[in-house]
Amino acid sequence: MIRLTDEQKKILDKYSIEYAKFDEVNDLLDSINDTMLTFVDNNDEPLPQFIELENLYDSIYNSNQ
């Protein structure tokens, strides 16, 4: 079971990441990573959405160790 806070779920919903369909945390993290990669500008610089998702990724990773 993946542990998620209400705040984490809110951010996942914001980016339409369907967290309920994942049984393994690594699968959810892969999905977050795929979404993160859509938020890079033409110079390969991260956009604010990328940073928000990166922080979410780290938070979920750390809370599910």
Q: Layout of SSEs?
A:
Layout lengths: L5 H9 L10 H12 L11 H16 L2
Helix pairs in contact: 2-3
Main sheet record:
none
- Listing every helix as H and every strand as E from the N terminus to the C terminus, the arrangement reads HHH
Report how far apart the termini are. Answer: 12 Å
Q: Give me the secondary-structure category.
A: mainly alpha
What would the principal axes of the Cα set say about the shape?
elongated
Low-confidence stretches: none
| Oligomeric category | single chain
Which percent range fits the helix content? 55-70%
- Rg, Cα atoms, Å: 12 Å
Taken as a percent bin, the fraction of beta residues is under 5%
Structurally, how many domains make up the residues?
1
Let me know the number of strands: 0
Q: Averaging pLDDT over every residue, what do you get? A: 97
Q: What do you see in this structure?
A:
57% of the residues lie in helices and 0% in strands. It is mostly helical and 65 residues long. The termini are close together. The longest helix has 16 residues, at 48-63. The relative contact order is 0.20. The model has no long low-confidence stretch (mean pLDDT 97). It has one domain. Helix 2 runs antiparallel to helix 3.
Summarize the structure.
57% of the residues lie in helices and 0% in strands. It has 65 residues and is mostly helical.
Which descriptors would you attach to this protein?
elongated
